[in-house]
Amino acid sequence: ETGVTQSPTHLIKTRGQQVTLRCSSQSGHNTVSWYQQALGQGPQFIFQYYREEENGRGNFPPRFSGLQFPNYSSELNVNALELDDSALYLCASSFLGSVNTEAFFGQGTRLTVV
Amino acid sequence: KNEVEQSPQNLTAQEGEFITINCSYSVGISALHWLQQHPGGGIVSLFMLSSGKKKHGRLIATINIQEKHSSLHITASHPRDSAVYICAVRGAGNQFYFGTGTSLTVIP
What we know:
Largest sheet of chain A: 7 strands, mixed
Strand content of chain B: over 45%
Number of helices of chain B: 0
Radius of gyration of chain B: 13 Å
Number of strands of chain A: 11
Shape of chain B: globular
Oligomer: heterodimer
Order of helices and strands of chain B: EEEEEEEEEEE
Largest interface: A-B, 30 and 26 residues
């Protein structure tokens, strides 16, 4: 079992609302990346945070934003929720600076937008 | 075209069979991961490879960097191996590119 914890595990929101998802990082890691996994598809990269700064972003609109805190935990915020935002949101914790360190994934937050 | 392609998409096997899942990728990578995802959604990293071959119990993973190809083998498959197996590559920016997964069902 990894030290990466995501909360909440499940969430139901209404279209137009805002949501905040949380991810702790593995001890010793400095990078958290976020992924969206729609039903039946592989996860898609949203963005990555390294030392509290965004240092990579996938093809997601600005209403997807994030934060990383000094303890390297992270939040994903989604504004103006749309029905298509319904998905499993995964975070991965890793150490940027050493090529071959393992990455650990959280259990995911399943978001349903109605 | 996806950066990571997996085959097959779905696989049904009888208990005890030898199983192979293939992964091809088109980007430069620092490492390749084989991941297991159970119905609840959580992902477990089975292997991280940057060259050669790794073995863990009944699981074997190989990678050919020149051909940009990796395989995951399961020997003596068991119903508890039923899950989605995902190939993911870590790119130069540390982000992951994922395949769409192979859904494996092992029948007793």
